[in-house]
């Protein structure tokens, strides 16, 4: 949406919040003008990240402050707006209870205290959400039971990073903390399942650079997310490869877990291997027809005797085609687990899974809540994660 209509819309929504809350707060406390000032600051600063992206150089300190202020305001306003709607719905129900059911409603108490509750809850969740978003993501350990898993692959581990969104508020030091945490895990492979960046290569090259320090026995593998295409996917693919990361574009690699010389037969050699495939983002074909996502194509020429197959796919929506193609596990992200209320309620409208480990036919799907965040530095009820997935044999 262009900046001017967006600014006008958010300004009108701020006016709605002010009209619904401020008169009630004025009855309760003489400090109510502070809420008016907060709403005015929020309305004025929300457009700033978009304005500064166009008109301010990335290295400008002023541009960074504008982006931080606007994005924090965006998170606070989101909660204020939703909670104001919830309050109005509750007041409507109370009015109906009084009009139809004869319930005595103490409006003199309900109106001001419910308005204060909206302000307090929005501010508290934004503060807690900020701390949650800015901390280094915790490690979530997940065992994935694979039917018929060869003995050589028992305990094979993949550290998954997803949806880091390096950009206005996620920079070099944030990424370095993630790299250090992942390297301490000693995973066999590292998977980055898309939405790594929110900006161009010249803007973010120095901030993405710590990813070159990721260490795993078989290396680090990356697939594109939708935000890579917004930011210039081809340039980013080149940059990530320059850093030594392996970008999988509807293709696969075969990871051999056993020393080739130690294998007695071809069957042993194949059983000790794992096919790790990666597809472009589910929507990539809209940006570049040559990048249309295709889980079947990603298995082209894969050794048929290597039966353990893992797919990296940014969006959970890739799962039906992946299951049909014969994968045992798909690793995805994209959803952020909703990031903060109420957006977690809308994720199921677009994606089959929101977060965690799920079963689709004969395939497992793991959806990460994301390692960073998008937009407002705010996570509430959907903690960020570095996921360590370990393959284990399924119980009979």
From TrEMBL:
One of its GO terms (molecular function) is UDP-2,3-diacylglucosamine hydrolase activity. It comes from the Bacteria. Residues 157-337 form the Calcineurin-like phosphoesterase domain. GO terms for cellular component: membrane. Pfam families: Metallophos. It comes from Variovorax guangxiensis. Keywords: Hydrolase, Membrane, Metal-binding, Transmembrane, Transmembrane helix. This is Calcineurin-like phosphoesterase domain-containing protein. The chain crosses the membrane at residues 30-51, 71-98, 110-131. Gene3D superfamilies: 3.60.21.10. One of its GO terms (biological process) is lipid A biosynthetic process.
């Amino acid at each position: 949406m262009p900046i001017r209509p967006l600014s006008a819309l958010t300004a009108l929504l701020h006016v709605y919040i002010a009209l619904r809350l401020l008169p009630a707060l004025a009855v309760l406390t003489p400090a109510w003008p502070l809420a008016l000032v907060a709403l005015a600051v929020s309305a004025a600063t929300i457009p700033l990240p978009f304005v500064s992206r166009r008109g301010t150089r990335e290295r400008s300190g002023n541009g960074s402050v504008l982006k931080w202020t606007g994005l924090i305001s965006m998170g606070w306003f989101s909660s204020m707006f939703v909670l104001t709607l919830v309050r109005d719905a509750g007041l409507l129900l109370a009015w109906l209870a009084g009009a139809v059911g004869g319930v005595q409603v103490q409006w003199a108490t309900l109106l001001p205290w419910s308005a204060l509750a909206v302000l307090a809850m929005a501010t508290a969740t934004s503060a807690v959400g900020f701390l949650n978003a800015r901390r280094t993501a915790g490690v979530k350990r997940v065992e994935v039971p694979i039917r018929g898993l060869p003995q050589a692959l028992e305990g094979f581990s993949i550290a998954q990073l997803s949806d880091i969104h390096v950009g206005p508020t996620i920079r070099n030091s944030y990424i370095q903390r993630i790299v250090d945490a992942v390297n301490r895990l000693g995973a066999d492979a590292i998977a980055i399942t898309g939405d790594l960046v929110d900006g161009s290569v010249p803007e973010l090259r120095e901030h993405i650079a710590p990813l070159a320090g990721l260490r795993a026995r078989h290396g680090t593998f990356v697939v594109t997310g939708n935000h890579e295409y917004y930011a210039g996917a081809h340039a980013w693919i080149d940059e990530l490869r320059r850093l030594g990361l392996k970008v999988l574009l509807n293709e696969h690699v075969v990871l051999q877990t056993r020393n080739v010389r130690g294998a007695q037969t071809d069957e042993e050699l194949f059983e000790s291997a794992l096919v790790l495939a990666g597809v472009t983002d589910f929507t990539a074909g809209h940006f570049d027809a040559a990048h249309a996502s295709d889980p079947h194509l990603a298995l082209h020429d894969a050794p048929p005797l290597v039966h353990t197959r893992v797919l990296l796919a940014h969006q959970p929506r890739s799962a039906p085609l992946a299951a049909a193609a014969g994968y045992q596990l798909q690793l995805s992200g994209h959803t952020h687990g909703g990031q903060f209320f109420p957006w977690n309620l809308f994720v199921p409208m677009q994606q089959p899974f929101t977060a965690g480990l799920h079963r689709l036919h004969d395939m497992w799907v793991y959806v990460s809540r994301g390692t960073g965040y998008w937009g407002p530095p705010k996570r509430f009820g959907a903690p960020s994660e570095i996921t360590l997935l370990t393959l284990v044999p399924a119980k009979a």
